[in-house]
Design brief:
The structure is a single chain. The chain contains 13 helices and 21 strands. The two termini are about 25 Å apart. About 40% of the residues are buried.
Length: about 400
């Protein structure tokens, strides 16, 4: 069973949470980070510390990681942050468009990650891992959490429900309209109950944050090697997470746009599609309403693609995903995109941007767009349980976890 433990969070001092909190480091470019980090208390001065240096400075240079460290502990020394004296759990709730997701903030074990009790569904890219390895290592801290999920239990739901009726530590609405509320779980009995009940769960699943988790684990293993001997209780053996019940989560679609038709004319492309799909023209932008429907925008016209009569699922949890169907039936054989991770002709558009973004891209730098039916949380868990990997960009979670509300120091 995976281990989940309380920790002494570095968190905003009273009245500072809204100013400090920021979107995750990887959902913006450098110019956007600089603009969003205009407030000197913004957590982006830690998570994207290159904004404090000249534009010519390489964002992956040692001085950027040093600046992140210096900014974090300067804000702690100056009182913008405080650190709890005892290890606690924390309850973090986000409400977006009337839907709430409520999770437990704590630390997961790097041994559970390496031992497969924290299950993955995506591959990672080495260069992104190296960036967060250097960042966490320089900061002596996990500055942003990994987004985990688990199959809900009545006992945990009841305790979370009781605690969230109490007075929160922070409660504010960010400029993107998401409400963020945090409770500190300081009662020893509640802490023990969380540890006990979470310890009964078979596995945790990474919903979002595969690079952060991989990087945190590698920093922990690196520090074990450096120490020579360790007890397993050192903080570097654990990494920062928020653990949400599966029932709370919603996944948005992750859409695709492609730059060209691999030398085909539009008519030739449509003809090849009709060999594999039934095509229906539709007068309006189309978001698929059921599994195995795909929307397509080409030459100002929207289509609905459905597999031809007689097609049946294979029984393979990955091959039967709509993302896989698009890849295996369209992107690969017709558009010659064999590896969507590396092919520069394809780009990915999160569902939060809407169908108008697909039309915009096709009107500017792309030729064709595909709108997808969102992967379900059940599909994600099934793929992870099978020990398999989803195609790249299969899931888009909203709302994003706000950064800066809790930091796990291991110095």
């Amino acid at each position: 069973m995976p281990l989940f433990k309380p920790f002494k969070a570095i968190r905003p001092a009273e009245g500072r949470a809204e100013r400090i909190s920021a979107l995750p480091y990887d959902v913006m470019n450098r110019a956007e980070a600089k603009e969003m980090g205009a407030d000197p208390l913004s957590f982006l001065h830690i998570s994207r510390s290159e904004i404090d240096l000249g534009d010519s400075v390489d964002p992956y240079s040692p001085e950027v990681y040093k600046a992140a460290h210096d900014n974090l502990y300067r804000m702690l020394d100056e009182g913008s942050f405080l650190q709890d004296d005892s290890p606690f759990f924390y309850i973090y709730r986000e409400v977006m468009d009337g839907r709430a997701q409520t999770g437990v903030v704590g630390c997961a074990s790097i041994d559970d990650y390496t031992g497969g009790r924290i299950k993955k569904h995506e591959l990672t890219r080495v260069e992104k891992e190296i960036d967060r390895i250097n960042h966490f290592d320089a900061c002596d801290a996990h500055t942003e959490p990994v987004f985990l999920t688990y199959r809900n239990t009545e006992a945990l739901a009841a305790l979370i429900g009781r605690i969230t009726e109490e007075q929160p530590m922070y409660d504010f609405t960010s400029d993107d309209g998401v409400r963020h509320t945090l409770w500190v779980v300081s009662n020893p009995g509640d802490i023990d109950f969380f540890e006990s009940e979470l310890g009964k769960i078979d596995a945790f699943y990474i919903a979002d944050g595969h690079h952060r988790s991989a990087s945190a684990v590698k920093v922990g293993l690196k520090r074990r090697d450096k120490a020579g001997s360790f007890t397993g209780d050192e903080e570097f053996n654990f990494f920062l997470t928020v653990l949400f019940p599966d029932e709370d989560l919603a996944i948005l679609p992750y859409n695709r746009v492609v730059r060209d038709l691999a030398g085909l004319s539009s008519a030739e492309f449509l003809e090849k599609l009709r060999e594999r799909f039934d095509l229906e023209e539709t007068p309006e932008a189309y978001a698929p309403k059921a599994r195995h429907e795909i929307g397509m925008y080409l030459d100002g016209q929207w289509y609905i693609l459905r597999p031809k009569a007689g097609w049946a699922e294979s029984g393979d949890v990955v091959a039967d995903l709509d993302i896989s169907i698009l890849q295996n039936e369209v992107l690969g054989p017709i558009l010659k995109i064999e590896d969507p991770r590396t092919d520069k002709r394809i780009d990915f558009v999160g569902g939060i941007r809407g169908l108008s973004e697909l039309e915009k891209r096709v009107g500017s730098d792309m030729k064709v767009a595909f709108s997808m039916y969102a992967t379900t949380i059940g599909e994600l868990l099934s793929v992870a349980d099978a020990g398999k990997i989803m195609p790249p960009k299969s899931t888009w979670f909203e709302p994003k976890l706000r950064s800066g509300l809790f930091v796990h120091s291991f110095r």
